[in-house]
């Protein structure tokens, strides 16, 4: 049985999808971009700040499902410019214990929603 996860501490969906879906003990999150949930404005001042906002949004979604980054088993990172990989990775790494970090792919894409530079989705198991 699936349960829809929603929190006002992360951006509301901008289309026909949910922030996350919990099936049993597995959480599937939608991709998060750098929208400040309090102002509904994009945070694009620099790639580090943008990535931090994405990760904070993801943290809020995980917490709404009573999970944390330690429960994440798979991450997908979509970036508009692979030259930003190192900066994104530095911010991303602050949220995980490297020894227990999830599996991950990082893919450069032609365009992301609202022309952001990074979008991240996760799968977590508790």
UniProtKB/TrEMBL annotation:
UniProt xrefs under SUPFAM superfamilies: YjgF-like
InterPro entries: RidA, RutC-like_sf, YjgF/YER057c/UK114
Xref: Pfam families: Ribonuc_L-PSP (PF01042)
CDD domains in UniProt: YjgF_YER057c_UK114_family
Similarity comment: Belongs to the RutC family.
Name of the protein in its database record: Reactive intermediate/imine deaminase
Lineage: Bacteria, Pseudomonadati, Bacteroidota, Flavobacteriia, Flavobacteriales
